[in-house]
What we know:
Blueprint: H1 2-42, E1 57-64, E2 74-81, E3 86-90, H2 97-105, E4 112-114, E5 119-122, H3 133-138, H4 146-155, H5 172-185, E6 190-194, H6 202-215, E7 220-224, H7 228-232, E8 236-241, E9 244-250
Parallel strand pairs: 3-7, 3-8, 5-6, 6-7
Antiparallel strand pairs: 1-2, 1-4, 8-9
The protein binds adenosine-5'-triphosphate (ATP) and magnesium ion.
Magnesium ion binds near residues 97, 98 and 124.
Amino acid sequence: MLVPIVALVPLAVAEALLPLTAAVTHLRPLRAAVDRVAALRAEPAAERPAPQLCTGVRLIAPELRWPGTTAPALRGVDLRIPPGTHVAVVGPSGSGKSTLVAALLGFLPADVLARPATAAWAPQDPVLVSTSVRENLRMADPHADDARLAAALAAAGLPGFDLDALATAVSGGEAQRIALARALLAEAGLVLLDEPTAHLDEPTARAVLAGIKEALADRVVVHVTHRPAEAATADVVVEVTGGGVRALSRA
Ligand SMILES: Nc1ncnc2c1ncn2[C@@H]1O[C@H](COP(=O)(O)OP(=O)(O)OP(=O)(O)O)[C@@H](O)[C@H]1O
Ligand SMILES: [Mg+2]
């Protein structure tokens, strides 16, 4: 009775070791990759390539259509944004403002999309990972120290906010400002802000707008807003309505 069981043992051991052999085979490239990431994290910020900030944006799209839909959300889009311009995007709910942002991110196919290599996006409904606020912010820049994270939070209207706080325990307005701080930290040439002040009271929204203006003075900023006061401070106002996009004013 004992013999067959003993005979089976080497087979079982071999099966147990097989995944280990595969793991050992992958160990060397894995270690090389880990070393590369560690080297990148250790690299001082000054030696990293400067972000490409001074580029304009060009978007040409006869139709912008969401996958799985029959009708285009927007038609005849022809947008040119000079470097350093702050654009306010206004228009009724459901008119296609977030669709325009999606096209600028390259999520929807367009005939022409020329824009800075790096784009940061604070979505209308931001998603935070369920770790600390600090970890959520560091997604934009793993090199950022706590002082830099705190400065970004202050610019986004959350001065003194606890970096150790759990991201799942923040309010909707706080989540939006954390997403905004993350977009500020990314040092992107194009910054897309989809209603960043929608959940905020008037004075807080004003402070947040001032923070955005200062932190992003040299970037192309596309800022979707329902607040006329915010649109009034932009260089260009673009209205999305009736299935189309048109510039309302130019500085
Ligand atoms: N992910 C998606 N998939 C399919 N259709 C979408 C998607 N997002 C938006 N749409 C459709 O595109 C059209 C424009 O919506 P969009 O979200 O761009 O409007 P909006 O101007 O941003 O509205 P709001 O002010 O309410 O945010 C709507 O008909 C909407 O149903
Ligand atoms: Mg929207």
